[in-house]
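ok so I'm stuck.
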Amino acid sequence: MGNPVIDQLMNRRSVRAFSGETVSDDDLATILRAAQQAPTSVNGQQVSLIVTRDKSTIRRIADIAGGQVQVATADVFVTIVVDFNRTAHACQAAGVTQQIADSAEGLMVGAVDAGIMLMALQVAAESLGYGTTAIGGIRRAPQALVELLGLPAGTFPLVGTTIGVPDKTRLPRVKPRVPLSSFAMHERYDDAAVAAGVTEYDRTLAAWWQEQGITDMPSYCRATAGYYQSDYFPTVGDVLARQGFSLADK
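replied:
not stuck anymore, here's the structure
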């Protein structure tokens, strides 16, 4: 008998086509409660969620993210917010001034905790039969999202996730990954294994697309280079500064 948790994780896929059915209120509450149990650094709980069900607001978020249909057609959108406003209130109650948001460590803490929260949300949703996709595109125009969601200083919308009932006739195949030996390295980082893994995966991914009759997708190397040859969300730094984040310790 297989392990259902391992089976779910091994078959994780980004669901971009939804049936139009509704996520039940009870299921959504369960997903949110389960995700809230995710760990956070020093138990600071410096993550908040903005849960959007209003369809016009979801469409606006889709526009902010670059016109993503997978967002516009989701039943629920959850924005994961780095929230040092909460911890500022805690520091104030203790009679001290919060400093962490002015440091590189603060950004690291917020990003790590947001990533953990994203995984917790998605695993919980998928365990109940829903489909999800991580949406980093909300950082394309972060100031617009800050204003739309009414986010105060000390917060930043880092990533989001869709939640919806999958259209089972349009489920994507599970996408392969780089070779395990170039991903999980024992004792020390192995740059030669990483480089070899990139070459092998470039071929593997191309073959995976071809097996599905899709010939116009870029290779792994070309796709990655297309994003990482430039700063593709160039306003993030400015909006972080407006929201009260800095790197005073640099």
